[in-house]
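FORM 7B: Structural annotation worksheet

SECTION A. Query
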Amino acid sequence: MGKQYQLSFLTFLILIFSISLITAEPIPPNVRLTNYPQLNNEEQAWICPTDSNIVIANWRDFRLGYRQVGIGRSTDGGLTWSDSLVHHSMQYFGLDAKQSDPTLTADQYGNFYMSNLDYDGFGLTGGSIIAFYKSTDKGLSWTGPVPVPNTPDYSLDYFEDKQFITVDRTGGLYDGHIYCSWTRFPNPDRIVIVRSINGMALRSTIFSRALGPLITLIRFLEGAMTLACTTCRAHGSRQTCRLRKTGCW
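SECTION B. Predicted structure
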């Protein structure tokens, strides 16, 4: 009786497994965004909020042998892609520029915003700046760079690093506001957050706020992220393995 029960149960499991194989959704194929063999990393992708066939991606791209930012665009939901680099003419330091730390977001109207870390990799200053770009035609073309921060206290003695961006898509009072937070080195290392209230227009109104010195025993564990909520404008957070400090703006 026991053996018969075991065989019946085994038959039942085999039947269930066979049915699951037949009815399971097929695993979609991996689709390459770029066919260059060099290193590509730090990628992100956004589906257009107003047209799900449009997908925009960006990533750190080494096809030239040094850090640049690649941009990919798909018009068929990610099945096929076209890609390019942010041209030197659109980089803050021009031919001396290297780019890194790409970020990407979109507002509810389908405008895309990209932020890259531009730094003087071949020049003499060694400084860096956060460069913003905007696309109003679903990633087909981009305008910029808009440097952030363009505040009076900015200096190329700073090294900006690891910026993250978000757009308020809550439909509330601050809908469409753009927020960016990052780590600023050195003396003291600290988190900075800025916002744009006019869609990163070329003469953008940008406000900055420091969230205080970055105090951590291991400096490479720094980072800053932003998020928008329905009760206020934005939060900036600093994370060193766990959420340690937040600020509401």
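SECTION C. Observations
The first helix runs from residue 2 to 23. Residues 202-208, 210-221, 234-249 have pLDDT under 50 and may be disordered.

SECTION D. Sign-off
Analyst initials: ____
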